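Exercise: predict the fold of this chain.
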Amino acid sequence: MKDNLIESQINDFSEIDNEFNIDEDDFDISFDPEKEISLKNSRYIKPKKERSIPYNKLKYKNAKKLAKDINFESLDRVFVVVDGSFIFGDFIEAFIINHRINVTEMTLSTLSMSQDNIDSLANLADNDYIQKLNIIVSDYFYSHERGNLIKYMYEKLDKENIFQLAVCRTHCKVYCLKTEGGKHIVIHGSVNLRSSDNLEQFIIEDNKEIYDFIMDYNEKIIDRYKTIEKSIKSKELFNLIKN
C-alpha cells in the first residue's frame, strides 16, 4: 500500500507496495575522530549518518490517505508502520473528519506535541467534532514549553470548559476516542503527535476492554495532575498564568 503505509490483516505480504524509499545515505552517522574505534579490517561497521527530513517535506496527504484507507465500520485492529514524513496529529484530524466522527471524549497521552497539533485539535473542537478533550503531557515537555506552547494550548483549546491538561512523568503514546456511535477507539504505539523523523508503528482498534483499562488510570492521572481549575473562568486563569 502506498504513502508509507503497511497494514496488518493482509495475508499475502508480497501484495503490499512497501514504498519507504529508504536511501542508504539516510543512516550515515558522524563520529568524533578522537573517540572513534579503529574499524579497519574489523567486523564492526560504522553506522551511516541519518539525514533529517526538512519540515516542508512532511506532507499532510500521507495522513489523509491512511485515514481513508482504514475501514471505520469494521475497525477491529489495524497495524501500521509509517516513516518520518508522517505527522500523527494530522492523521487524527483526517480520520475524524473523513469518517465524520462525533467524539464525545478524546484523551491524548503524549510525550510532546507541536503548535500544528494544537491548531489541529482546535479545528476539531471549533467545528464540534470533539465534546470533551483531555491531554496528558510529560513534565519534561511542560517545563520546556510552559511559556510557549503550554500558554498557546490554553488559549486555543480552553473554550466552553471542554478542555483539561494534565502533566506528569509519562512516556506513553496512547490516544483514546469515545464516539457518539458507541465505538471505543484506542490508538497506541511509538508515535507522538508531532513528527519524529523516524520509523514509527502504531495499532488502531475499536476495543472497549482496552479503552476502559486505559481510561481507568488516565482519569486518575487527570484528577491528580490537572492544570486547569474549572471553577475559575478562562480569562481569570490566563491572568494567573501571565502573572
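Check your answer against the key: Helices lie at 60-69, 88-98, 115-126, 139-145, 149-157, 208-225, 234-242.
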